[in-house]
Specification:
The complex is a heterodimer of chains A (617) and B (216).
Chain A: H1 7-11, H2 22-27, H3 32-61, H4 71-106, H5 114-132, H6 161-189, H7 202-234, H8 249-281, H9 288-301, H10 317-345, H11 354-375, H12 379-385, H13 389-419, H14 425-451, H15 468-498, H16 536-539, H17 542-551, H18 558-561, H19 571-587, H20 590-609
Chain B: H1 3-7, H2 16-41, E1 56-57, E2 63-64, H3 70-95, H4 104-109, H5 112-140, H6 148-181, H7 188-214
Antiparallel strand pairs in B: 1-2
Helix pairs in contact in B: 2-6, 2-7, 3-5, 3-7, 5-6, 6-7
Classes of the chains: A mainly alpha (617), B mainly alpha (216).
């Protein structure tokens, strides 16, 4: 990752230790924008790995009795495809936007704890490598992305595979939790004067809800994983049914985490789309307060629907009914959002840029996934659909059609702010249509193969069951998705070098982040902005316009402005690395655990006792 | 307008660390809720003993008394509660470091070192009780892998003990700073955050003591 052509880097070349140069600059950065970009590149890399795993799966299932991979390898592929996409691609892609955007949208210099922010990123990177590398040695986790016990206990999964999964998720949890504490504090405490909660841009609002979901849901999976870890390593009996353990304990704990996790994956995309649609409709977001309340309601209800993943295990009529009703209820605030997006576009001056097309793509495709979701909120219907390809179709419509489409919209929309250049609209158009068609080609037939009874997670199937054609179409769609993603990547890297120069507000958007230069100077805002409305660039007062005018001026360094920035430091990265080494010790030798722990403690003390930024008087 | 001053502007006027520790405590609540719920779900489901509140005779005729010793744990609970009191006094001493101290009582109450030591030692004493309890249980035949009670009891109380340990290390670190350069009102927030954590861990113990030891 070479240094980008940031204007400030030229003017600060004279500094003895230039924080903005070379690889070392990236390793030691505590700048939320650079950390956001690191998240983006890393998550896109994992997105490609997870996508290629899916392509192998589709190649295997292209026709009956496929023999491309063994059953064991197939198990590893679908487990790692799910785990990678959920924990290493979509969540960190959202985190890229949390990092890059939240301080810009609320008028802050950085996040509340810049070094903790760097720590979150490095833990994510090392944890991601830890959990991804085993597949190249055919040792990857193979118990499915939700790792049901007792299958994942030592008795049924004696190998090292599940150990990578249990420990890897534990590491990634640390990253998510640390980031969530940071962003909650940032949003509560670092809003510029006048940025009341009800003036906050919708992306920041949805991110705010997501951080609460993270801090309340992740401890539950932490405990579930600790039990599994102890069962596997120290002989506890949490999941030992023969010793009287409840066979559903894992499922409950996992889904109490797992369902809020679904909203952790989708709400940031909802937020991005809520930024894109108003800009390209030239209208403020329709029903802003209702959008806020429905986002909060989705977050709250998200904790009360987990057992709809478990209708097939026989919880009894009362539990089934309660969770069926709560699941149907959560469709209401979600539907409200869909209608409000349509209301935003209604009678607007629509401009169909690539970002806008992806945003509309989300509205359309997520609705399809949402409707199939309501279908299996009914237990009798779910009993037919559960563990079939119908479910696979459903959650790919919400995660690919929802989260990924929303994230693509966000990338096209914010690329100019990140790099100072525009992405090619022509290639973006090709990417969108190819992606849209391929996505439907891949996942729509799965509704039918699922209804015809094709179960999930089978590595091969016989012909004559009516599944062949649907699987072939799905596989063709998957190959087309590879092409679409390749076009996107080409566009991304070409535009970084040769894209049209963007200027501070290329889209004519209304929110605060568009008042500052693109790419954003290291200090973000030259003066603390004063906010008087939701769209300062559309409807601001003179006072707001004046601070926007000052902030849009380019080329000033932080020294000239007298702005104190935090020191760059490598310590968060060392703590993260030591922590992962400590966890590695669990599956190799305890000596490594002690070594990692010792380095971690020393580096942590060194971090905490060193000042964040230069003294200023 | 000077930019450095603007750098420390916060929306609420509170220091960010204070908000972060509350978010952290909220998250920790979910951690302990999950652990305590599991303990409760597994209460009475163990197939073999020893049990917490009932006697048990194994198939080969060995007799096991109820394993929990409520009296000893009441003492350790009292010690932990008193550590919270010491923590409050330590924070107050740091906050009022610059006030003149005339009487001997004021000097004692105003000694941050004394009360930080007191808090850390009481916390360490609690850990000593827990170490004694764990070893005696193992000698009586209850380990992590004996039964569901053993698994859930040791994991729950062990997690709490790990939190107390982290708290003691935190307190000792504050003491080290106090000895090196003295803790004053400028450090009050750092002590305050440690205190919030300490009180939280204390409150969690009250719940664990009630659920595990007192309710039969």
């Amino acid at each position: 990752m070479a240094t980008t052509a940031v204007p400030t880097s030229i003017s600060s070349d004279s500094m003895p230790s230039d924080p903005y140069s070379g690889i070392w600059g990236w390793i030691t950065t505590v700048d939320h924008k650079r950390i956001g970009i690191l998240y983006l590149y890393t998550a896109l890399s994992f997105f490609i790995i997870g996508g290629l795993e899916a392509v192998v799966i589709r190649a295997q299932l292209q026709g009956p009795n496929g023999q491309l991979v063994s059953a064991e390898m197939y198990n590893q592929l679908f487990t790692m495809h799910g785990t990678t996409m959920v924990f290493l691609a979509i969540m960190p892609l959202s985190a890229a936007f949390f990092n890059f955007l939240i301080p810009l949208q609320i008028g802050a210099r950085d996040v509340a704890f810049p070094r903790l922010n760097a720590f979150s990123y490095w833990v994510y990177l090392f944890g991601g490598i830890f959990i991804t590398v085993p597949i190249f040695f055919q040792l990857a986790p193979d118990g499915g992305w939700f790792g049901y016990t007792p299958l994942t206990t030592r008795a049924y999964s004696p190998g090292i595979n599940i150990d990578f999964w249990v420990i890897g998720l534990q590491i990634l949890g640390v990253s998510s939790l640390a980031a969530a504490f940071n962003f909650i504090t940032t949003i509560i405490n670092l809003r510029a004067p006048g940025m009341t909660l009800m003036r906050m841009p919708m992306f920041t609002w949805m991110s705010f809800v997501v951080q609460f979901l993270v801090i309340l849901a992740f401890p539950v999976i932490t405990v579930a994983l600790v039990f599994l870890l102890f069962d596997r390593f120290f002989g506890t009996q949490f999941y030992a049914v023969a010793a009287g353990a409840d066979p559903l304990l894992w499922q409950h704990l996992f889904w109490i985490f797992g369902h809020p996790e679904v909203y952790i994956l989708i709400l940031p995309a909802f937020g991005l789309v809520s930024e894109v649609l108003p800009t390209f409709s030239r209208k403020p977001l329709f029903g802003y307060p209702v959008m806020v309340y429905s986002g909060i309601l989705i977050g709250v209800l998200g904790f009360g629907v987990w057992a709809h993943h478990m209708f097939a295990v026989g919880m009894g009529a009362i539990a089934d009914s309660i969770f069926a009703v709560s699941t149907m209820l959560i469709a209401i605030p979600t539907g409200v959002k869909i209608f409000n997006w349509i209301g935003t576009m209604w009678q607007g001056q629509l401009r169909f840029t690539s970002a806008m097309k992806f945003a509309i793509g989300l509205v359309a495709l997520f609705t399809i996934g949402g409707i199939s979701g309501v279908m299996h909120s009914s237990p009798p219907a779910d009993l037919q659909q559960t563990d079939t390809y119908f479910i696979v179709a459903h959650f790919h419509y919400v995660l690919f059609g929802g989260s990924i489409m929303g994230i693509f919209a966000g990338i096209y929309y914010y690329f100019p702010k990140m790099t100072g250049r525009m992405m090619s609209e022509r290639l973006g158009n090709v990417h969108f249509w190819l992606n849209f068609i391929a996505m439907n080609l891949t996942f729509f037939p799965m509704h039918f193969s699922g209804m015809l009874g094709m179960p999930r997670r089978i590595y091969t199937y016989d012909s004559g069951q009516g599944w062949d054609t649907f699987n072939l179409i799905s596989s063709i769609g998957a190959y087309m998705l590879v092409l679409a993603t390749a076009i996107f990547l080409y566009n991304f890297f070409m535009s970084r070098k040769r894209g049209e120069v963007a200027g501070s507000n290329p889209w004519g958007a209304g929110t605060l982040e568009w008042t500052i230069p693109s790419p954003v100077p290291e200090y973000n805002f030259a003066v603390l902005p004063t906010i008087t409305s939701r769209y300062p660039l559309w409807e601001g007062t003179e006072e707001a316009a004046e601070s926007a005018r000052i902030n849009s001026q380019e080329g000033k360094t932080s020294e000239e402005l007298g702005i104190v920035l935090p020191y760059s430091t490598v310590k968060p990265m060392i703590v993260a690395l030591a922590m992962v080494i400590m966890f590695c010790g669990l599956i190799t030798t305890m000596a490594l655990t002690f070594l990692g722990a010792a380095i971690m403690v020393l580096a942590l003390y060194s971090w905490l006792l060193s000042p964040l930024e230069p003294e200023h008087h | 307008m000077s930019a450095p001053a603007a750098h420390h502007y916060t929306t609420t006027g509170l220091d960010s660390r204070k908000i972060a520790i509350w978010a952290f405590i909220g998250s920790e609540c979910m951690l302990f809720i999950s652990l305590i719920s599991t303990y409760l779900i597994y209460k009475g489901r163990s197939i073999v003993g020893p049990f917490p509140h009932e006697e048990w005779t194994s198939p080969d005729g060995r007799h096991f008394e109820p394993i929990l010793d409520i009296l000893v744990t009441s003492a350790s609970t009292f010690v932990l509660l008193m550590s919270s009191l010491a923590m409050v006094l330590a924070l107050s001493a740091v906050q009022n470091k610059n006030l003149p101290k005339r009487t001997r009582g004021e000097r004692i109450l105003g000694s941050s070192k004394l009360w930080l030591w007191m808090t850390a030692l009481l916390g360490a004493t609690f850990l000593g009780f827990q170490a004694y309890e764990f070893t005696s249980f193992v000698h009586e035949g209850l380990t992590l892998s004996t039964n569901l009670f053993g698994s859930s009891f040791f994991t729950l109380t062990g997690f709490h003990g790990a939190h107390v340990t982290a708290g003691v290390i935190w307190l000792v670190s504050l003491l080290a700073i106090d000895y090196r350069r003295g803790l004053g009102p400028a450090d009050a927030l750092n002590v305050d955050i440690a205190a919030l954590y300490w009180h939280f861990v204390d409150v969690v113990w009250i719940v664990i003591f009630t659920v595990v030891y007192l309710i039969q």
